[in-house]
Amino acid sequence: MAVESTLITFEAAGVSVPTPGGDKVVLEPTTLELTEHRIGVIGANGSGKSTLARLVNGLATATTGRVLVDGLDVARKGAEVRRKVGFCFTDPSAQLVMPTCVEDVELSLRRTVKDAAERRRRALDVLERFGLGDRADVSVHSISGGQRQLLALAGVLATGPSIVVADEPTTLLDLANTRRVADLLFGLEQQLVLVTHDLEQARRCDRVIVVEDARVWFDGPADAAVDDYLASVS
Hints:
Blueprint: E1 8-18, E2 25-34, E3 38-42, H1 49-54, E4 67-69, E5 72-73, H2 78-84, E6 85-88, H3 101-109, H4 116-129, H5 145-158, E7 163-167, H6 175-186, E8 191-195, H7 199-203, E9 207-212, E10 215-220, H8 222-233
Parallel strand pairs: 3-8, 3-9, 6-7, 7-8
Antiparallel strand pairs: 1-2, 1-4, 4-5, 9-10
Helix pairs in contact: 3-4, 3-5, 4-5, 5-6
């Protein structure tokens, strides 16, 4: 099935983000248009790559320029943008707030599905699709790290976003669960913006942005971007 491209624009005026204290810019003025299906963002710790990703749904706020998602200004239309953009954190504990797995997915559906019985049915269906059907009434704190990340993704995808931003979603996982979560992400119909240290995952993207020292260092096809990054750190 063809996926309709979503236009994410970091406008020509540039987008920059300082630290709260104002003593260090964590992302210099940046101009980008992101339309590819799978976009990777790589770079060293502290380079600004997560800040770049967080601008897409307003988790980080630009001080110059503006960010548009399908023509919506993130700063002015934040609620509308967040209905289009699902965000998955490195540590799923930052997202899992309800006692049980099914209740956590139900929470994601609360705005769009008003009937409680229908909301429970849909939440159970989502858990089944993610291989967590038998974990429905289990505490979110007693499932494995890989299952918690899958549950966090289930909650994000239950709302039907058109964009999924995943900020190092496999960093805390073992090899088997890393592959499981990565395969799920790369199988999505939604546009994917993936921040990752895993260069094998980056090579699976259509386009990769390398962020270094708070600026875009390289932007291009995945293999070329990863090779450039490896050359810069060798």
